[in-house]
Design a protein that fits this description.
Number of domains: 3
Low-confidence stretches: 1-7
Oligomer: single chain
Radius of gyration: 31 Å
Distance between the termini: 25 Å
Length: about 650
């Protein structure tokens, strides 16, 4: 899947290698391949033959097109323009393309004139092109026609130029049928609310005028005895340049979640890494779960493979790696199957998270460098998942087996990517092993929220000073691991008259949530007059809260890195955090925020917030220093450069060992 030659068109890297051998036959004038449609998983065109009125007929893959390659044939092989190649001398012999074709059927006309000229047109099934839908001057984003005029001109011209073998009566019947088909379709679109009546009238005029223009062009061609095209190929000024060896690095990132359906944790990290690597020239594939129908799409410079968690190899994967034969093994098998497909494009490296061990079998793939990224593991998460401990059978059959598989993977993975020393130390201690010599630490990065919103920090602070209350954001799910109970106690401690208002984002408040919160924190949510619960928000909603916050409180009991903290800093908000996990590697005491021990967190955070509420200049100073710290250490560009450097080293080392 190389760079697009035209918008929405991407060729398989092996495309030319598949087409070229056919030109060893001197009679071959054109060769094309099979084309995948906008979903990336279904065919748009395979073998196709056309008649002399430009109508396409799809035939079986095993249909022999050879007998149709003779002059004046009623049916002939016809290539799709987006996946076609032509012998230069053959094109020059027929005069090249015909500029009378305004839009549509120009390549069909060339194929027909080649066959009539004694050349052969062939299909090569393994020469693949991925053809995505693109809005244009003739099609709207929802695929409705903006105009029919260019295509009607082309179709009419084709019928009048090439349908003469069957006589004028047949030509007229085909043209009348085509015109009525379009007018009927326009009426249906209007009656079913897809287009307005005014739009229908415009399309109807396009049909009438297009037929007149196309027929006139065909008549002029007949009068002038036009027998060839009028866009011949010029002789090249220079020979073709050789293809450079090596090419760009191609990597696949695996993550079950991915924006916009999931924009937290591993999903967000994967999307940021993918974007950063693509900006550095890496060819990036992301394998993720399909929220709807499976699809492969090229979006914003990244190939997105949205796949189902289904594969016939799930049982063998479960046995080979001793993982539960449920959703986890099915997903591993589906990922492995998709990677086999991507490998045909020249894949160099696969990166997958330790959580769920999503691409574990790649550790045994000799063709690929395999990097496992460290995040929260089942073993580290188990103390904060009481439901796992209550479900004894689930704990033994699933959790225990995944923990054991994690340990095996950690012992044998040759390349491990971590975003903090904390996660490395925690894993080494919990699993009783050493990652020395096999890991690299690249700090997390995140986009600059202020720059993305088109704001300056001073302008944002000027708006905040005018407010009566200090706004405190708590971006935490209602999980004990995230320390939401500490945040609720802090809000209760400051309930009433403190000049501080809390904004909780990440959980919907319902009777079940209220009961859980009361059990975990002893706080009745409805008693909190200084709190707004925003529930679960999309990315834009969360970013807006960051930009509105004076301070962000993050009392998480364990963070493998602490993405929330750097997101706060990118908005110019200082952070009050629990001194646990990797937050101590992100939050710099007195510069970008404060680190507090769990014992005394509520009282300490309350003192800080009261002081800040009464001293707005201090808030401004801390905001500037937090924003500066973000730019020094935690931009997405810095993260992408560090990860790319490690990926290149991993690929080089893997090739040396092969």
């Amino acid at each position: 899947m190389g760079p697009p030659a035209i918008p929405g068109r991407f060729t398989h890297p092996d495309w030319l290698n598949r087409l070229a051998p056919h030109y060893a036959r001197p009679d071959v004038g054109a060769v094309g391949g099979f084309t995948v449609d906008n979903t990336g998983v279904r065919w748009q065109v395979r073998k196709t033959i056309c008649d002399r009125y430009g109508n396409a007929h799809f035939v079986d893959d095993f249909f022999d097109l050879g007998p149709l390659n003779f002059p004046r044939t009623p049916f002939y092989p016809s290539l799709l323009g987006t996946n076609s190649s032509f012998r230069r001398s053959a094109l020059r012999a027929i005069g090249g393309f015909d500029h009378s074709f305004a839009y549509l059927l120009d390549e069909t006309d060339v194929c027909l004139r080649l066959v009539d000229g004694g050349w052969s047109v062939l299909y090569e099934p393994d020469a693949l092109v991925f053809h995505q839908f693109a809005e244009s001057h003739v099609r709207s984003p929802n695929r409705q026609p903006r105009t029919l005029y260019p295509s009607v001109v082309s179709k009419t011209y084709f019928i009048q130029r090439h349908g003469r073998l069957d006589g004028q009566t047949r030509q007229a019947e085909m043209l009348d049928g085509y015109r009525e088909e379009l007018l009927t379709a326009n009426r249906w679109l209007a009656e079913n609310g897809h287009i307005s009546n005014a739009h229908r009238s415009s399309l109807d005029r396009d049909v009438i005028q297009g037929v007149e223009t196309g027929a006139r062009a065909a008549l002029e061609a007949a009068v002038s005895d036009k027998a060839a095209g009028d866009l011949p190929c010029a002789e090249p000024d220079a020979p073709f340049l050789p293809v450079e060896a090596g090419g760009r690095l191609r990597v696949a990132l695996v993550s079950q979640g991915y924006p916009p359906e999931n924009d937290a944790g591993i999903a967000r990290w994967t999307s940021l890494v993918a974007r950063g690597l693509a900006d550095l020239g890496v060819q990036v594939h992301v394998i993720t779960r399909a929220a709807g129908l499976p699809a492969r799409r090229f979006q914003h410079g990244i190939w997105l493979h949205q796949i189902d968690a289904e594969s016939p190899d799930a049982a063998s994967i479960a046995t080979a790696y001793d993982v539960p034969e449920h959703d986890l093994a099915r997903w591993m098998a589906a990922v492995t199957e998709e990677l086999r497909f991507i490998k045909t494009f020249g894949l160099d490296l696969v990166s997958f998270p330790i959580w769920d061990l999503e691409a574990l079998p790649t550790l045994d793939d000799p063709d690929l460098a395999s990097v496992m990224s460290l995040h929260t593991t089942y073993r580290l998460a188990r103390p904060f998942k009481p439901e796992w401990n209550l479900r004894v059978l689930f704990g033994r059959s699933v959790v225990d087996r995944v923990v054991a598989a994690e340990e095996r993977a950690l012992r044998r993975a040759p390349f491990i990517l971590a975003n903090s020393q904390t996660i490395v130390s925690e894993i080494e201690q919990e699993y009783g092993l050493s990652l020395a010599g096999r890991h690299r630490i690249v700090p997390h990065g995140t986009p600059d929220l202020l720059a993305g919103a088109g704001l300056s920090l001073d302008a944002r602070l000027a708006e905040h000073v005018a407010r009566d209350e200090l706004h405190v954001l708590v971006p935490a799910r209602f999980e004990l691991r995230k320390g939401y109970d500490l945040a609720l106690r802090l809000a209760r401690e400051m309930n009433g008259g403190a000049g501080v208002h809390f904004h909780f984002a990440g959980a919907e408040v319902d009777p079940e949530t209220e009961a859980t919160a009361l059990r975990d924190s002893g706080v009745k949510l409805h008693d909190l007059q200084n709190v707004t619960f925003h529930g679960k928000l999309d990315r834009a909603g969360v970013d807006a809260l960051y930009l509105s916050a004076d301070v962000v409180v993050m009392p998480s009991r364990f963070e493998s890195f602490g993405l929330v903290a750097i997101e706060a800093m990118s908005a110019g908000a200082p952070v009050i955090a629990l001194s646990a996990g990797a937050l101590g590697e992100v939050v710099e005491e007195g510069r970008s925020g404060w680190l507090l021990a769990e014992d005394g967190f509520v009282e300490g955070a309350a003192r800080i917030l009261r002081r800040l509420a009464a001293d707005r200049p201090s808030v401004a100073r801390l905001s500037h220093s937090a924003y500066a710290a973000f730019h020094e250490s935690f931009s997405t560009q810095a993260m992408a450069r560090g990860i790319l450097d490690y990926y290149r080293a991993a690929v080089a080392a893997s090739r040396e060992q092969a």
